Amino acid sequence: MNTTPASLPGGTWTLGDMTVARFGYGAMQLAGPGVMGPPADHDGALAVLREAAALGINHIDTAGAYGPRVTNRLIREALHPRPGTLRIVTKVGAVRDEQGGWPPARRPDDLRRAVHENLEDLGLDVLDVVNLRLGDAQGPRPESLAEPFETLVELQRQGLIRHLGVSNVLPEQVAEAQSIAPIVCVQNMYNLAHRQDDELIDDLAAEGVAYVPFFPLGGFTPLQSTALSAVASRLEASPMAVALSWLLRRSPNILLIPGTSSVAHLRENVAGAGLPLSERDLAELDGIGR
Ligand SMILES: NC(=O)c1ccc[n+]([C@@H]2O[C@H](COP(=O)([O-])OP(=O)(O)OC[C@H]3O[C@@H](n4cnc5c(N)ncnc54)[C@H](OP(=O)(O)O)[C@@H]3O)[C@@H](O)[C@H]2O)c1
Asked: What is the CA radius of gyration of the chain?
């Protein structure tokens, strides 16, 4: 098993001024059912985070809204004091309601509170990357991000945030953010079956901006496709391994943050994501989302 960021499948990417393994980890699945409350297996959740670090993963994606305030505190408990090379990317812009919904919270006071809560829960003085999450659970919405993004820029100037990103956004919102301040990443839904961001990914690659697909394995609805199953069985691999290998191959600026609450699945995903996909495999997989 690989044990350094550079030897993980996909190698590394420079996120702002930080070198991260392209194979990262998304912490959302560590909270309780519906991403609410604590995990059923607290020690198991800590074990997943510690295994990720032991495997060389140094990019963890999280949010104060997971739990809420559950995954950030688990990350702190499992990994504090973190090595200087571990980068934690968080999101602000939504909170949780009593029904488990994700209502927006993007007024300046909401965002300031969220940044301070993230700092407190993660035990940090500076957040490595903060993504402004827009839209809603159905996806991006056409709306200006100027006011909330400018609030984050102000918090960055105060030294509380190293780098900025945006999430759940349309291409024109990426451009609007970039007209205000530099961003290092865009985090949107994208996988073998959902490819609406193909052009955006290529544009960001040309600019040196990372694209971080959420739901790389399909999220709450696992990816299912006859073509994916056929390629997986030909390669004697799992569909998850094929889906992750395809993302790493798709573009060098794609950073993976697959989620899992299982040490075994984490190991499987890391071990499986470096499949050498042939032109025939790629052609068959390309057909899934087109
Ligand atoms: N910006 C946003 O709005 C947004 C939205 C959603 C998610 N995110 C971020 O994106 C990350 C990734 O998304 P996600 O975790 O929701 O979805 P995902 O990575 O597409 O899929 C996670 C699901 O796949 C299962 N899984 C993982 N590896 C497996 C394996 N080897 N075999 C079988 N099942 C496997 C997990 O179950 P087990 O736990 O049983 O392994 C879990 O149910 C999140 O953790 C979060 O950090 C961001």
From this structure: 18
pTM of the model: 0.98
State which ligand 1 atom lies nearest to the alpha carbon of 223. 20
The structural domain count of the chain equals: 1
CATH of the domain at 265: 3.20.20.100
Those residues with Cβ within 8 angstroms of residue 40's Cβ, 6 or more apart along the chain or in another chain: 32
Asked whether the beta carbons of 279 and 219 are under 8 A apart, the reply is no
Give tens-digit pLDDT for 198-244. Answer: 999 999 999 999 999 999 999 999 999 999 999 999 999 999 999 99
DSSP class of 220: T
- Report residues whose beta carbon is within 6 angstroms of any ligand 1 atom: 26-29, 61, 91, 133, 167-168, 187, 214-219, 240, 257-262, 265, 268-269
Question: Mind telling me the catalytic residues?
Answer: 66
Q: Which residue's CA lies nearest to atom 33 of ligand 1?
A: 265
- Note down the domain range covering 171: 21-224+245-276
